Amino acid sequence: MFNETYEFQPWDDNGLLLDEKIMSETQVLIGTNNGAKLLDLSLTIDDIAYTDINEFVNNLFAR
Amino acid sequence: MPKKISQLTALAGSLANTDLLEIAEDAGGGNFDSRKITVAQLKSAIVSNPRTIDLVTGTNVTGTTALTSSASILIPANTITVASVLEIQSRAIRVSGTASTIAFSIYINTANNLTGATLLGSFISLTATNFFSQGLRSLFINPSTNQLTVINNGATVADDYVNTGANTVLTYDETTAYYIHFVLQLSNSGDTGLIQFGKATLYE
After folding, report:
1. CA triple A25-A22-B105, angle to 5 deg
2. Alpha helices by DSSP H, chain B
3. Residue B129 three-state SS
4. Quick one: B16 and B99 in the same domain?
5. Does ipTM top 0.90?
6. Which of A1, A6, A26 to mutate: most B Cβ within 10 Å?
7. pLDDT tens digit string along B7-48?
8. Contact check, Cβ <8 Å, A37/B170
9. CA dist B14 to B74, B113, B145, B186, Å?
10. Domain range for residue A55?
11. Which of A8, B8, B55, B118 could bridge across to B199 with cysteines, CB 3.0–4.6 Å?
């Protein structure tokens, strides 16, 4: 799944265009050009692990 | 002395995949060669349309407020070879607890987990007093374009019987195996939810 390249792209969540939606303390939906992807804290960003989902999201969009 | 079929001992149990049958293979020119085939070969030669890919029951979801896959269905690689409709239907029930809402959705992933899964759609949530929610999505999958089309995946609706609205187009590589995940999310971790059934039926 992550051997693909995706671009951030909002999705229509019941009429609201969202870039991301925090789903739980460990999960976030991220809008891409291939649908909304459910990411979680088992993933790393540039080999850095996170324990806070908000920090994870902020660093994801900062890349 | 050859026996008539009616003189043979009847099969006592069910047919096994390894049981053998005799056939006459067309050799052309009005000739036939005797061959053996297994019951498994016979089954694979019988193609029904539509056909059930799988019917599953889930496991209880409790003790967490994270999105959790209660059940999943494997769509093996190369299952879809022509433009087809994959109909996904599922029912969520509240097993116990009436503290809060249970959200109900479906995802698709190349792995049998939710990490990196793509949202296919959200069904109607079970409010604290609801014990039952059922939903349906019809996925149009076209192998020639590697595309899966579904009603707007951000819409929270029970089914896709509409004549207006947006759709969502996702990449679907038919040479890859996919899992359809039936997902519950408890608003209160003390409640217990369950995917009573999830099924995938292929029309081609």
Report:
1. 100
2. 39-45
3. coil
4. no
5. yes
6. A1
7. 999 998 999 999 999 999 999 999 999 999 999 999 888 888
8. no
9. 27, 36, 43, 44
10. 11-62
11. B55
The closest of A61, A16, A24 to B115, measured between CA atoms, is: A24
The first and second tokens of residue B112, run together, are: 């049998």
Work out the minimum CA distance from B16 to partner chain A, whole angstroms. 38
Residue B156 is nearest to which of A14, A24, A27, comparing CB atoms? A14
Residue range of the domain that includes B23:
5-45
Query: If you search the block for the tokens 């902020």, which residue do you land on?
Result: A58
Q: pTM of the full predicted structure? A: 0.86
Residue numbers in A near B110 (CB within 8 A): 1
Q: Is residue A25 part of a domain?
A: yes
B113 and B180 share one domain: yes
Helix, strand, or coil here: B81? coil
Q: Whose CA is closest to A10, among B148, B108, B174, B166?
A: B166
